[in-house]
Amino acid sequence: MATSRILVADDDQAVLESVTWLLQENGYDVVPAQGGAACLEQLDHRPPDLLLLDILMPDADGFQLLERIKAEDRWRDLPVLMLSAQPPEDASVRSLGLGAADFIRKPYRPKELLARVQAQLRMGALLRSAHLALLRTEEALIRAQQDADSRRKLVDILHEVTGDLSVPELFQILVRRAARALGVSHCSVVLARPGDTQAVVVAAFENPGIQHLTVELERYPEIKAALESGQPVLVEDLDTHPLYNGVRECWGSEGLEIPIRSVIALPFSIDRGEYGVFLVRRTSDQERFEAADLEFAQAVVTAAVAVIQRAQMVENTMADNARLEQLAQTDPLTQLLNRRALTERITAEMERALRYDSTMALLMVDLDHFKKVNDTYGHLVGDDVLRDVAQLLATTIRASDIVARYGGEEFLVLLPETDEVGAESFAERIRVAVEQHAFARDTIFGPLGLTASVGVAVFPAARIESVEDLFARADAALYRAKADGRNRVRL
Among the four 278, 300, 411, 463, which has the fewest Cβ within 10 Å? Predict the structure, then answer.
């Protein structure tokens, strides 16, 4: 990513300079553009790998500029990350609807901005690779259309497998369409590595219900030979081919009658070291496979593998984005939501309470004298205690409640549809649970006993108009609980 080129368009000189400096310090090639006109000029000159675009600029509306960029073929796939001081509820929805890749609210957090920039650059690189794979597939299709009827059958197959399908779904479609195109009753995809003694059948045309069926490769010499040689195997007649000398003896001793007459085994490999064999068979009442059948089957598998690799890249990209979003919202020590993620939930719950004339409560839970735990037993034991508290709170709350780590030894609990009486009662239950719990054990000192103070704030209430006001009210209640002797609940 060190050579990635990023265009930053913003009318605010201070923001433009700070973002430019931050990205350059992290190894990116940054092009600043002050305003919409300068942004378009830079895009015409040389499209970047990523565009950071402000929404409100004197000489351009960021939404209109985004719409124009996405309307042009040359910029359509350019990832755009919108920056704005507008409330994210409306601005982010509109930005994403117009084709933006992501949205960040000003003032931005440097680490979050860098993480999102990295994610979008990675996504862009994967999409470019996917586009190249698709272009190669399309070129294969164009060449196939110039051939005879068998090539047109290949086009039909690829049209079906180039959709947004999972890899198992692609395998199922591949065996079904390839079997029909080749006029065979037996077609399957078998996964194994060279040197394996067993393989797994992941898709079979003759039996669609087969999933992850394990087979012994000693019984399938054509699969074994294709894996070990890395080359296609064409067996025109099982009754005479030397590859089956030992297997035919086994069939005879077991009294088995094998209805298969002819076989094609095509090895393939996919990313991450996954190997397999595309196996096509014809029965005794069908014609033998010839070199032309092998050539067509190879074309099918080559193109299909490119599509499967694309599907894997899309799945990996989606998984990476999901993990990044999870990391951005999760406290790494306790695996609870962090304050940022909870703030978004509280905002939505406050709006809901006002809309439906309901109530909600926020509990701020603080462990009493926690510093002594770290000073006496060490930070490792302190971390164990915090994890224990997180688990205790997670098992104590209701399904509709949300618990998060506020920071240090403080935790937050959001209670929807809860009034003062219910919130105070629930807070008391948490206080008692902490007091009675035997926390992390140390080999020398034994179990630890701790208490907690809880501050309670309820919404709607006078002088609470924002999430910050609600935090302040709960924090003030917690301060009173501490001042009154700790190990108690205060509203």
Answer: 463
- Give the CATH fold of the 147-315 domain: Beta-Lactamase (3.30.450)
Asked if pLDDT for residue 315 goes beyond 70, the answer is: no
> Which helix or strand (DSSP H or E) is residue 317 part of?
helix 291-329
Q: Does the pLDDT value for residue 160 go beyond 70?
A: no
Using H for helix, E for strand and C for coil, what is the string for the chain? CCCCEEEEECCCHHHHHHHHHHHHHCCCEEEEECCHHHHHHHHHHCCCCEEEEECEECCEEHHHHHHHHHHCCCCCCCCEEEEECCCHHHHHHHHHHCCCCEEEECCCCHHHHHHHHHHHHHHHHHHHHHHHHHHHHHHHHHHHHCCCHHHHHHHHHHHHHCCCCCHHHHHHHHHHHHHHHHCCCEEEEEECCCCCCEEEEEEECCCCCCCCEEEEHHHCHHHHHHHHHCCCEEECCCCCCHHHHHHHHHHHHHCCCCCEEEEEEEEEEECCCEEEEEEEEEECCCCCCCHHHHHHHHHHHHHHHHHHHHHHHHHHHHHHHHHHHHHHHECCCCCCECHHHHHHHHHHHHHHHHHCCCCEEEEEEEECCHHHHHHHHCHHHHHHHHHHHHHHHHHHCCCCCEEEEEECCEEEEEEECCCHHHHHHHHHHHHHHHHHCCEEEECCCEEECCCEEEEEEEECCCCCCCHHHHHHHHHHHHHHHHHCCCCCEEC
Q: Is the pTM of this model over 0.70?
A: no
**Could you give the C-alpha distances from 323 to 172, 327, 330, 390, in angstroms and in order?**
29, 6, 10, 21
Class of the CATH-defined domain 5-122: alpha beta
* Rounded Cα–Cα distance for residues 385 and 379 (Å): 10
**Residue pLDDT, tens place only, 68-78:** 888 888 888 88
- Counting Cα atoms < 13 Å in the Cβ hemisphere of 381 gives 22
Is the distance from CB of 487 to CB of 451 less than 8 angstroms? yes
Owner of token pair 């359509």 = 76
Pick the CATH number of 339-490 from 3.40.430.10, 2.40.37.20, 3.90.1150.100, 3.30.70.270: 3.30.70.270
Hey, which residues are catalytic here?
Answer: 409
pLDDT at residue 148, rounded to an integer: 45
Q: Where are the domains of the chain?
A: 5-122, 147-315, 339-490
Closest CA relative to residue 199, chosen from 264, 300, 278: 278
The CA-based angle 33-36-40, given to 5 degrees, is 80
Pairing of strands 29-33, 5-9: parallel
Please list, in sequence order, all residues whose beta carbon lies within 8 angstroms of the beta carbon of residue 172, skipping any fewer than 6 positions away.
203, 208
Q: Which residue has the higher pLDDT, 23 or 341?
A: 23
